[in-house]
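Hi, here's the filled form for the chain we discussed.

Project: internal
Contact: R.S.
Residues: 132
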Amino acid sequence: MQNYISRNELKAIFGSIAACLRKKGLFVATVRLDDEYRDGDRNISKYNYLRYPPWVWEKLINSRLISYNRLRAPDYRELLENAGLHVEQFEIDGPTPADLEELNTISVHPFFKNYSREELGAKQLAFVATKA
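And the returned structure, exactly as it came back:
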């Protein structure tokens, strides 16, 4: 699983997986949650993507060729459950104290106000889901 898929596309994909999954089948995935743009520019924070409102992100920064969805771990859990999947395991690689210090240097846009600092700082998640 990659984070290059939009929320609407993930909703459809998870629904298709739920429909195709056998009774004891497993859906296993990992998702990277940090700013992949930083891979190309170490001068920006790994939390840089949290600074922007959705319209700026979608119209000026995000690429139509390789879209980056900015979803957080709770969003993935919600999408899985709404697709009719039962989340057996959901492990989040949370932020270190240094990560939280770095996050505190970023002016996080109010769009992300419903997430905890730990959810915003999470770096990766892994999950196992079954047919509900």
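Let me know if anything looks off before we file it.
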